[in-house]
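Weekly sync notes, structure subgroup
Attendees: PM, AL, DS (notes)

Item 1: joint prediction request from the bench team. They want all two components modeled as one assembly rather than separately. Inputs as received:
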Amino acid sequence: MSPSRVRKQVDGALLSFVARQRPGLLAISDDLAPVMAALDALLGEGKRLRPAFCYWGWRAAGGDLDEGIVNAAASLELLQASALIHDDVMDSSDTRRGQPSVHRRFEALHRAQDWPGDATAFGEGTAILLGDLCLAWSGEMFETCGLDDDRRRRGRAVYDLMRTEVMCGQYLDMLEGTRGGATVETALRVVEYKSAKYTIERPLHLGAALAGGGPGVAAALSGYGLPLGIAFQLRDDVLGVFGDPAETGKPAGDDLREGKRTVLVALTLERATPAQATALRRRLGDPDLDRPGVAELRAIIEETGGLAACESMIAEYAHEADRALAAAPITHEARDALAALAVAATARST
Amino acid sequence: MSPSRVRKQVDGALLSFVARQRPGLLAISDDLAPVMAALDALLGEGKRLRPAFCYWGWRAAGGDLDEGIVNAAASLELLQASALIHDDVMDSSDTRRGQPSVHRRFEALHRAQDWPGDATAFGEGTAILLGDLCLAWSGEMFETCGLDDDRRRRGRAVYDLMRTEVMCGQYLDMLEGTRGGATVETALRVVEYKSAKYTIERPLHLGAALAGGGPGVAAALSGYGLPLGIAFQLRDDVLGVFGDPAETGKPAGDDLREGKRTVLVALTLERATPAQATALRRRLGDPDLDRPGVAELRAIIEETGGLAACESMIAEYAHEADRALAAAPITHEARDALAALAVAATARST
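Output from the run, pasted for the record:
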């Protein structure tokens, strides 16, 4: 299948899973219709990166065309929806994928209905519950994907590990953010668990395990997936500061406003003069950071050489992934697809 | 097995599941030790009601002694831990099971460490992530319980339904709380999904499905479980207003401070004079409600006859459950155990 065909199939699998759930929810109460609408809106967007890596991990390990792998791969998009919804609560993000975040959406519903209770708490509570529902449904979609018990048992070990790793990575990310003082080394550890394994390495491993691939294939996929995953997250960090809102779906400089302690920030602080470091630390995480404030911090990140250092790390990790891919014992078709995914995951625009 | 022996086995299964996870987390980072400690503290307490109903549903449907059912039943306690941790964030509860709630625990850690970031946001973020981890682990523990694929497939359908129902029920509960004006009827619908199905009916069905029980057993267990589940929640509502903190693990009158729109409150408002209704509505949900305020609201709930009406509903539902249990086509041993659980679930003290 071509990458665009994989994407269409994943979209179709997600739509039909959600369509199977909808009547049950509405039978409980019509009041659940806005919850389903919020999920529809979120799932309508997204690059389906994790399902794509899962599918090509399967093909790389010799899996053939099977509806079951599409369902299993698509279940990762529900896991990702859960992570995004909860992340946005934790980061107080206003937007996601170019739309209001789920908690803001329900805060707005509360205000529009003029209900007497606390609109913010209602928005956050709904987002916590919808994120929980997506997490439960991702497991349900995986287990009911249609692949046989033996394949699922092998895949489940990866699936379980991946969920634990990403949740731990998110905790460490938040911890580094709140206690400050992240070094390049500690920021990279967060990147490894929160992004590189979760977004690329484990989806590849999941697909390969479902296909019955052995440790050799898994190791080859790690050789490609881990460095690519790091490059992917570093690219995301750069886009979070310098990206075009029309492409990122987030306001310009949103990562600066959220105070994320990224590798990019750590690289900048390593290179900053005391005055630059003080200025960066003072404004980083300021929720009221305006356009001139964003411009000021962008200038520091460029002038210190932090941006150039980050771009050079991205290039190195992407190159390492390329080399590993070239040597991997997989089919031409899988190699070509994974090479194309590597370009998409690290491109300067999304 | 005697009820206390079931409890010991469930405790043991939980301890060993968490013990298997611990090294993996600490290998990611020592910084995860406080997260594991918070989980240990929460799992150290609790009545294990849902595992008990699951186990006796299994026995009622003819299941025999098997380590697998203990693991499957114990996995419900991780699901419940997830629900409690997230509930406490949504309700801004300070305590749970006689200890600080998870979000307060990490807020306190943040302050004790004098970290520069926002302590409240750190506490809530950690609680969201630990709740997610417990939800993921409950699925993992269920799938790796040791029962064979066919049994798990039958049980999984119930497990999936139960998770969806409880999350929807929690949303409806929050919705009724925030928009006010809950009637006895709407409050009872919330009780059905949030409590009666989740705490009693579905755990019984899960056990029965795992044992291979047919629709006859499931219907008999519903006849007992649904009314008992309603009685259980109504008892919980009464304890939330009138209960002894030493027994409930929550401060006196905590449900009043959180503004819960319970059946007890709806019954009171149905019977209140305009002055009583105004006074109750005015103070319900006041986070600063002090001891005299709690006493004032308790007096209204008693004087209107709301409390007596609620106690009479509890007695009726409990009686309905008793009758259904007497007629259920199950073994004497299961019937005796379920009768004892019914008494424990609706007792005036915990």
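Discussion: Chain B touches chain A through 59 residues (CB under 8 Å).
Action: AL to compare against the crosslinking data before next sync.
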